[in-house]
């Protein structure tokens, strides 16, 4: 969602801290995974809003075009894979938030459409449509998908 492993770790840590603080308010009969996912998604959304505001104000900018260094210099296939992954990550990052959330939950996180629908408060058909549209947009932008 955030396009950066470090930012994702920070968002997750913030989500876990928020959950820990709110632990007395949680219903022990309900599974914690859905709650944690929702809190984490909200933390990611907050970070994206702050990033967008910083760009608008000309404060420190996040550069998604910064090349990713290879762990094994000289391994052409690994470099090509990393470049492809970076290109896909940038394309996913440019998707509208509703499409990106559905795609990340279903295609990347491996959740069912039902779970994603419950987490996002929409119908399964909405999730199905959003994932389909996200994949269509990615196909249009990327030659190899």
From TrEMBL:
Domain RNA polymerase sigma factor 70 region 4 type: start-end pairs: 86-138
SUPFAM superfamilies registered for this protein in UniProt: Sigma2 domain of RNA polymerase sigma factors, Sigma3 and sigma4 domains of RNA polymerase sigma factors
Gene3D superfamilies: 1.10.1740.10, Winged helix-like DNA-binding domain superfamily/Winged helix DNA-binding domain
Single GO BP term: DNA-templated transcription initiation
Pfam short name (any one): Sigma70_r4_2
Superkingdom of the source species: Bacteria
UniProt cross-references to PANTHER family, sorted A to Z: RNA POLYMERASE ECF-TYPE SIGMA FACTO (PTHR43133), RNA POLYMERASE SIGMA FACTOR HI_1459-RELATED (PTHR43133:SF8)
UniProt family annotation: Belongs to the sigma-70 factor family. ECF subfamily.
Protein name: RNA polymerase
């Amino acid at each position: 969602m955030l396009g950066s492993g470090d930012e994702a770790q920070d968002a997750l840590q913030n989500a876990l801290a928020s959950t820990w603080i709110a632990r007395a308010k949680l219903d022990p009969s309900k599974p914690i995974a859905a709650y944690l996912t929702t809190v984490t998604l909200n933390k990611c959304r907050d970070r994206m809003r702050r990033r967008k505001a910083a760009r608008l104000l000309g404060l420190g900018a996040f550069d998604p075009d910064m090349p990713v260094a290879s762990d094994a210099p000289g391994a052409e296939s690994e470099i090509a894979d990393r470049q492809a992954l970076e290109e896909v990550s940038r394309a996913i990052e440019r998707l509208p938030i509703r499409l990106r959330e559905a795609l990340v939950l279903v295609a990347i996180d491996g959740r069912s459409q039902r779970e994603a629908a419950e987490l996002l408060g929409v119908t399964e058909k909405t999730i199905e449509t959003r994932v389909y549209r996200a994949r269509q947009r990615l196909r249009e932008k990327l030659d190899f998908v």
